[in-house]
TrEMBL record:
This is bis(5'-nucleosyl)-tetraphosphatase (symmetrical). One of its GO terms (molecular function) is nucleotide binding. It catalyses: P(1),P(4)-bis(5'-adenosyl) tetraphosphate + H2O = 2 ADP + 2 H(+). SMART domains: HDc. It comes from Lactococcus lactis. The keyword Metal-binding applies. Gene3D superfamilies: Hypothetical protein af1432. Its EC number is 3.6.1.41. Keywords: Hydrolase, Iron, Metal-binding, Nucleotide-binding, Nucleotidyltransferase, Transferase. Signal peptide: none annotated. Residues 25-143 form the HD domain. It comes from the Bacteria.
């Protein structure tokens, strides 16, 4: 059974690479998938959970195939509801586009996987463990390389727990002068503070 799952994931990796046709974006997606899987491994010995984390990770940024200046239009074509903040800062829309493409193009039906893809940049209130894992994996495997200014603090907070690491990151980017404060991010911050208090 494990071998069949491995084959399925190998095939998905190949399909994502072809779909993206962008080495840098693909390498980031693969790194996030591996990090998400490793984080899950520390929490459970369930192959199913690890597989979900890997799939959400490999697909989390596929919406990045559309340049920022096309994202509002693509979201409207795909009937994706947009918030004012997303229209102001279209970069954020890629998470919703990624969910759409994962569902429509890659035929992903697992709602937990789709949820984790959809909020991997911002997190959201009432987040699941998988949402949190993919959110953190994306920051740990930052596409700007290992020199992320928040990296060391995030990894230190991660040694406490996932929630502490997520709250550290959110507080860091807010203090650093976030371009647009996405409502989902602010709601996630409140949830994290409540869970950690």
């Amino acid at each position: 059974m494990g071998e069949i799952k491995d084959k399925r994931l190998e095939l998905l990796i190949e399909e994502v690479n072809i779909f993206l046709n962008n080495d840098q974006l693909f390498e980031h997606c693969l790194a996030v998938a591996k990090t998400a899987e490793a984080l899950t491994e520390e929490l459970t010995d369930s192959n199913e959970r690890r597989s979900q984390a890997f799939i959400a990770g490999i697909l989390h940024d596929i919406g990045g195939i559309y340049p920022n200046d096309q994202r509002v239009e693509k979201a409207e074509i795909f009937n994706i509801e947009l918030l004012t903040e997303e229209r102001e800062f279209p970069l954020i829309i890629h998470q919703k586009l990624s969910k759409y493409l994962a569902s429509q193009h890659f035929k992903i039906t697992d709602e937990q996987v789709l949820s984790a893809i959809e909020c991997h940049t911002t997190l959201r209130k009432n987040f699941t463990e998988l949402d949190l894992i993919v959110f953190l994996a994306d920051k740990i495997s930052w596409d700007g390389g290992d020199n992320a200014p928040f990296r060391q603090g995030l990894l230190t907070a991660l040694s406490v727990n996932l929630q502490s690491a997520a709250l550290y990151y959110i507080n860091f980017i807010i203090a650093d002068g976030l371009k647009v404060a996405h409502p989902w991010l602010l709601e996630a911050k409140k949830d994290l503070e409540n869970q950690l208090s």
